Write a sequence for this structure.
């Protein structure tokens, strides 16, 4: 049985598994039956970010049924920059991403899929965009998607509906390639379905989010674990919750703060 939840509060996660010394970048990837892709993901990270020790790859195993957990442990032994987070059961994509965001220790945190349909080679440019302006997040939008016709059309419709209801203008909420300032993303409250609305939630809380086009490649190994229709109803319910948050957010009209 699938339980799309997590058992530990954010501060408990950080307390039980404290952060490493400050790093420049944490790469966070949820993993569910991605044995055929993990070695390629690791090699791509090394290729893009080199042999420096200022980055880490956080792989969150979401109760995989294949050899993914063993391969993650092997990568951790081979390279101390790889960190493994292991769920006791399958909890879903939101929980896996949330755990990775909380365990990540770097100044900047990037999320991506383990299947490499998102290209890590886009991240240096996204990081530069984040550092060169007064922004808190840079999110990718897949200008040319290498997916089936049904996936492309359903995604386009879903994005339009979400923006209409949420009052936002994010072009591609389904693109996993995103870069956040750690203090911004770790300040957000966690709830089920959160990963679909991270840019919108950041904007609700006053953070600056910009978009940039990114590459999108066909999947070369394994199969997608998330179909077109198996998440539509849940995402719609979550969307109305997000709209409620927008209407009920507390805006403080502070004009001045004085004194020591």
């Amino acid at each position: 049985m699938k339980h799309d939840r997590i058992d530990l509060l954010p501060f408990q996660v950080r307390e039980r598994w404290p952060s490493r010394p400050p790093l420049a970048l944490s790469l966070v990837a949820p993993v569910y039956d991605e044995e055929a892709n993990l070695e390629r993901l690791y090699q791509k990270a090394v290729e893009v970010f080199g042999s420096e020790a200022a980055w880490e790859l956080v792989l969150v195993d979401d109760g995989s049924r294949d050899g993914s957990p063993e391969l993650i442990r092997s990568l951790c032994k081979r390279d101390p920059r790889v960190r493994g987070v292991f769920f006791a059961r399958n909890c879903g994509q939101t929980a896996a991403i949330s755990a990775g965001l909380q365990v990540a220790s770097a100044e900047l945190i990037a999320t991506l899929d383990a299947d490499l349909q998102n290209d890590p080679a886009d991240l240096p440019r996204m990081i530069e965009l984040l550092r060169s302006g007064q922004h808190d997040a840079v999110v990718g939008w897949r200008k040319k998607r290498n997916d089936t016709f049904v996936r492309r059309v359903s995604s386009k419709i879903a994005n339009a509906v979400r923006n209409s209801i949420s009052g936002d203008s994010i072009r591609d909420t389904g693109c996993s390639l995103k870069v956040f300032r750690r203090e911004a993303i770790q300040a957000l409250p966690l709830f089920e379905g959160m990963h679909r609305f991270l840019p919108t939630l950041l904007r609700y809380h006053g953070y600056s989010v910009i978009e940039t086009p990114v590459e999108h490649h066909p999947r070369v190994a394994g199969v997608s674990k998330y179909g077109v229709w198996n998440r539509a109803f849940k995402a719609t319910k979550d969307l109305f919750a997000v709209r409620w948050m927008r209407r009920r957010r507390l805006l403080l009209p502070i004009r001045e703060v004085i004194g020591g």
In short: The chain has one domain: 10-248.
